[in-house]
Design brief:
147 residues, elongated
């Protein structure tokens, strides 16, 4: 029976690996944002006028992105804990000789729901990036037909 429990626990463990990979992506993005925010904070006091306004606008976007990534990471950690609880319940049920079906299903469903919420935060963060990184049309030289 323990072999069957190990087999049952493989699917949640694969989800846990996916969660870890997403966390790696998010922490990399967060690190870049922290670096960018530090650069902007250094430049901020020495700017004025339109340049200062551009720095403030970018700082606001960076702040929003940091908040979204922070929420996504928090929810991912909760999801990972839920997966751990799921696997733990599978083995606990085996040890007790009882099927803890409903609590196991609830913990797995909750973990997957939290994973989806984290992916929504990631989507919102990437949409924010896409909306703020539009290239000015004059740089694209769209009027030129020769290239």
């Amino acid at each position: 029976m323990i072999a069957q429990t190990i087999q049952l626990s493989l699917a949640p463990v694969f989800v846990l690996v996916a969660i870890g990979n997403i966390m790696n992506i998010l922490t990399t993005r967060l690190g870049r944002l922290v670096d960018r925010s530090r650069e902007l904070q250094v430049v901020h006091p020495s700017t004025s006028g339109i340049e200062h306004d551009a720095i403030v606008i970018e700082l606001r976007y960076v702040d929003q992105r940091i908040a979204l990534i922070g929420r996504a990471l928090f929810v991912l950690v909760l999801s990972g804990i839920g997966i751990g609880v799921t696997v733990g319940m599978l083995f606990l049920g085996e040890l007790l000789g009882q099927e803890l079906r409903i609590p196991t299903e609830v913990s797995f469903f909750t973990a997957i729901t939290l994973l989806m919420a984290a992916l929504i935060y990631l989507l919102l963060e990437t949409r924010l990036v896409a909306s703020t990184l539009r290239l000015p049309p004059e740089l694209l030289e769209l009027h030129r037909k020769d290239i």
